[in-house]
Structure formats: structure tokens, C-alpha cells
Amino acid sequence: TESKYHRHGGNLKTRSTELGSAVTGSSLTTVLPASTTVKKSIVLSSESRKELAKQAKATKEERRAQIDGRHRYLISRLADGIDLSEQQVEETIISDDKFQLIEQFFAPSGLKKLLFFYQDVLQQKLNTSSRSDGSTNSLPQKKLFITMGSTEDFTGTCAFFLRTSDEVITASNISQEVNFGMLDCTNGNILQGLEFFLSQIMIPALKSQQNWGAVKEGLKNSQIQEFLYSVDKFVATLSSSRQNIEDKIQLTEVDVDIYVRNLRNPSDYITAG
Fold first, then answer.
1. Residue-wise pLDDT tens digits, 51-77
2. For residues 75 and 144, what is the distance between their CA atoms, to the nearest angstrom?
3. Where are the domains of the chain?
């Protein structure tokens, strides 16, 4: 019995030694640095986010300091046209990564156009409260942003500024050198938006135009009349194309039997043809 006890005791002692070495051995020293590294990376990630936010805030304030009468003119037109407050438009502009396009538009011989889209944009939002994997949901949200017009799909409203000359744009001449307009293409219906813009805004404005520059006769001039006629014709063609695309062509069934009933031989078919 005693030898049996010692044998079991020896086993217990051996197991205790093995357990002790497992706890105090190299495996523990391997785990601890890994845990420490994870915590350190989280801290660095948080610091990086704070640094990025700090840089973004500094950039916004730097741009805000650059805003002058020219920017105020753009902001007021956008606010009136899109039904946003001037403060909202200003915050959007100074936060936009294409802010430099505005300066390029103001420069002598600069960009001929400056475009803004106001439409639904998918915003990525972290849904940590309902999903343990930290997955994201894409939610549509109205957003105003500067664009070149060639990279984003156009599905909403386009506000545009057009230069009339290559002169440098200043606070004193911007109202004479820059034209503002809007194109409503809700749900991506560009043809309908363009048709409305031309027929309801541009053509009435052209037909009420009194000063045609070097053309002294104005609307009585044959070239001016021909130009207005061509614009009217273009809008009519645009409207027809839009209706065709929307499947508005109505095809009626024709009773062919009426035409072929009396055709008896090849000569009758030749005569009918």
C-alpha cells in the first residue's frame, strides 16, 4: 500500500512539475508579448485616427480662411438652388477632396465649368451594436459634392457654373463672368431633365433676349430666327427620343387580310408592291 501511495504521489509530483513548467515555461512568455502587442496596436490605431482627424480639421480651417466674396457667391447660389443653408454648403465645400477645382475655376484661363452633384450616395456605417463581426451597412444619404462629371453616376441634381471668358474671376466680376444653372435628373432621367431645362428655361430666356451683341436687329435677324428654330427642333427631337425610350410608341394592329384578299397570282402581288 505504501509503495502504491508513493507511486501515486510520485505521479502527482511529476504532474505538478509538468503543470508548473507549463505555466512558468516558455509558452507563457510567448503569450504575454503577443497580448501586449495587440493592445499596443489598438492604441496606435486610435492615435492614428486622432491624428487624421486633427489633420482634416486643420485642412478645413485653412480652407475656411481662404473663403472670400467669390466663394460666397457660389455658396449662396448653391444654397438657393438646392434648398440647403449657406452654412451647410460651406461645410460641404471645405470638406470636399476636390476643393482645389474651385481655385482652378477662378484662375485666369482656368476650368470652363465647375460642377456639383446633389444626390443619394451610399454611406458606409459600422453596425457594431447588432453584428459581432463589425460588418457595415450601406445606407443612401443625400450629399452635395464637387465632381468632374465623368467618374460618378448622375442620378440627382447637377448645379453648374460656366465661365464666359478667360479673365481671372474676382469678387467684383464673378456675377458678370460666371453663369449658374441647374439640371434636375432625378432617378437618372437625364433626357427629361435636359428637355425641361431647355424648353422651360433656356428657350424662353433666349426668346426674351433683347441684346444680341453685334446683331443690331435682334430677334428680327434671320440668323437669330434660324438659330431659335434649330433649338426648338432639337428639343422636339429630344422629347420624341425620350418618349421612344420610355416605350411610348403605340403600335396598332392592321388587318392584313383586307389588302391580300384579292391577290390571286404573282402579277397581282407585283402590282400591289
1. 888 998 999 999 999 999 999 999 999
2. 12
3. 1-66, 67-188, 190-273
* pLDDT tens string 244-270: 887 766 677 777 777 677 777 888 777
SS (H, E, C) 140-173: EEEEEEEECCCCCCCCCEEEEEEECCCCCCCCCC
Measured distance CA(9)–CA(7) in Å, rounded: 5
For the question of whether the overall pTM of this predicted structure is more than 0.70, the answer is: no
Residue corresponding to grid cell 438646392: 82
C-alpha cell of 210?
A: 433683347
186 contacts: CB under 8 Å, gap ≥ 6? 155, 156, 157, 193
Rounded-to-integer distance, Cα 82 and Cα 183, Å: 11
**Residue 252 CA, distance from chain mean position:** 42
Maximum Cα interatomic distance, the chain, rounded to a whole number of Å: 131
Rounded Cα–Cα distance for residues 105 and 93 (Å): 14
The x, y and z cell numbers of residue 155, run together, are: 442620378
Query: H helices within the chain, ranges in order?
Result: 2-24, 26-66, 69-82, 86-95, 100-106, 174-177, 190-197, 203-207, 222-245, 257-260, 266-272
**Residue 185 CB burial class (10 angstroms; 0-12, 13-18, ≥19):** buried
Strand, helix or coil for residue 188 = helix
User: Within 13 Å of residue 54, how many CA atoms lie on the same side as its CB?
Assistant: 6
